[in-house]
Amino acid sequence: MSLNIKLGVSTWLWTSPFKTDTISLFSKIKSMGYDLVEIPVEDPALIDIKSVKEALKEFELEAAICGAFGPSRDLTHDDVSYHNTSFDYIESCLEIAYELEAGFFAGPMYSAVGKARLVSPEQKKIEWNRAVSNLYKVGEMADERGLQLAIEPLNRFESDLINTAEDVVQLINDIGHPAAKVLLDGFHMNIEEPDIERAILLAGDNLLHVQVSENYRGTPGTGQTRWDAFKRGLEAINYQGAVSVESFTPEVKELAGAVCIWRPLASSQDNFADEGIKFLRNWSK
């Protein structure tokens, strides 16, 4: 049985931050055979939406919009000013997603990436409730634009709040907003999930977007990922969204440091993308 999916790739594979002239990658991405480009929005002010929209149309690519949640963007922070900073940023991202007809906004939007501490059950409950309350507001912001939210669990080294499919399903149930859905990333799943297939089944109809790389964040098909289990899970839920390659270049030192990539993971970033889509095309047949 074949998967009825689109194949995508994140521009983070080559560069950071995404800015208007990053559209120069679109020709290459299309020529490799990708259907979709994943645009990580680090600074909305760097992006001229009109130019990006024209380039997407020229190269017949769809867009997915993902957020980048550094220390200042934290909906669970004790200081409410961090919540307001997050809302402003998320609203800008939602506008970009709306203008580019992306359908959803994705990412670990509940907290700051790298916020991984041992806290008391009482403190965790406080932060969980803040995430629930604030993401309901974000759900309203998305709904006003006809968009959904694809909320992403991160591994334990990057978040102490939402690590598994079970966590994120509990979160969206608690949020209770129809816009709140799920993104699953194979890299994080390889660390946190005992059973990738079961995790996908748990997400079920709520799964909006899938990101993949290998267990070591390298080219799909070159590592220890249970791609058979991955495919069975997606087939079982009749997943028809995108499967998008997400990894990072060691050449952009700030980003590489943030995601702990200390060495090249492929002979070149172009080779990573090209070999990745070849593998995924065969895998999804």
Characterization of the model:
There is one protein chain. By secondary structure, this protein is an alpha/beta fold. It has ten helices and eight strands. The chain has helices at 26-32, 49-58, 80-99, 121-144, 165-175, 186-192, 196-203, 227-236, 253-258, 269-283, and strands at residues 6-10, 36-41, 62-67, 104-107, 148-151, 180-185, 207-212, 242-245. It has an eight-stranded parallel barrel with strand order 1-2-3-4-5-6-7-8, surrounded by six helices. α3 packs parallel to α4 (121-144) and α4 (121-144) crosses α5 (165-175).
Features:
eight-stranded parallel β-barrel; alpha/beta; single chain; TIM Barrel
Quick overview:
This protein is of the alpha/beta class and about 280 residues long.
What order do the helices and strands come in, and which of them pair?
Elements: E1 6-10, H1 26-32, E2 36-41, H2 49-58, E3 62-67, H3 80-99, E4 104-107, H4 121-144, E5 148-151, H5 165-175, E6 180-185, H6 186-192, H7 196-203, E7 207-212, H8 227-236, E8 242-245, H9 253-258, H10 269-283
Parallel strand pairs: 1-2, 1-8, 2-3, 3-4, 4-5, 5-6, 6-7, 7-8
Mean pLDDT level: 98
Strand segment tally: 8
The secondary-structure element order is EHEHEHEHEHEHHEHEHH
Order of strands in the sheet with the most strands?
1-2-3-4-5-6-7-8
Q: From the alpha-carbon coordinates, what is the Rg to the nearest angstrom?
A: 18 Å
Q: Strand content of the residues, in percent?
A: 5-15%
Gap from first CA to last CA: 7 Å
Named at the architecture level, the CATH assignment is Alpha-Beta Barrel
Task: Provide the low-confidence segments as ranges.
Answer: none
Number of helices: 10
Largest sheet: 8 strands, parallel, barrel
